[in-house]
Specification:
Blueprint (H helix, E strand, L loop, with lengths): L15 E3 L5 E3 L3 H21 L7 H19 L20 H16 L8 E2 L4 H24 L6 H23 L5 E2 L7
Antiparallel strand pairs: 1-2, 3-4
Helix pairs in contact: 1-2, 1-4, 3-5, 4-5
């Protein structure tokens, strides 16, 4: 259980931050960029969820994803166990395959109700869909940052897969939200020439 009595600790004033195992790294490290991008994507998912409070289940999906994003940040901040690697255990939160499978099931269910894409779509439509597209773009950035961090340290492969699937999930959810209202805005190549 997390208990925060004090918000500032002064331990990061030297430009470092602590990882879950107690080690410290520079706040400018690639891993911290990935963790920060996950946090930003999570915040933007919250903004999208705020626009979907009376919908048919999307809000609950996004809140569940927000909780998983905290797990994901903890996963990234926790080095692999010398014996268990990235297997889940009492001392580490890990993203697991069942979370990825649930995202895929939700993607398939939402996508099954949509017309196939015949063009790229512009990120917009309704306000809720636009917020989902912003969250999707942030999730893609978090994925790129995590992949960059994985070039210099070992990260949980499931965490990287989760981020990849998450952006797909947010894209399809944005389309699903638009299908119930204003509709997708199709890209018209060269339309302003």
């Amino acid at each position: 259980m997390v208990k925060l009595n004090k918000i500032y600790t002064r331990t990061g004033d030297d430009g470092t931050t602590g990882l879950a195992d107690g080690s410290r790294i520079a706040k400018s490290a690639a891993l911290m960029a990935a963790i920060g991008d996950v946090d930003e994507a999570n915040s933007l998912i919250g903004l999208a969820a705020a626009a979907l409070t009376s919908d048919g289940g999307h809000h609950a999906k996004l809140v569940r994803i927000q909780n998983e994003m905290f797990d994901l940040g903890a996963d990234l901040a926790t080095p692999p166990d010398p014996v268990l690697g990235f297997g889940p255990h009492d001392m580490a939160l890990r993203i697991v395959d069942s979370q990825i499978a649930r995202l895929e099931e939700e993607i398939d269910a939402m996508n099954g109700a949509l017309e196939p894409l015949k063009s790229f779509i512009l990120p917009g439509g309704s306000e809720a869909a636009a917020r989902l597209h912003v969250a999707r773009a942030a999730a893609r950035r978090a994925e790129r940052a995590a992949v960059a961090a994985a070039e210099s340290r070992t990260l949980n492969p499931a965490a990287l897969t989760y981020l990849n699937r998450l952006s797909d999930h947010l894209f399809v959810m944005a389309r699903h939200v638009n299908a119930a209202g204003s509709g997708d805005i199709l890209w018209k190549p060269g339309a302003t020439r």
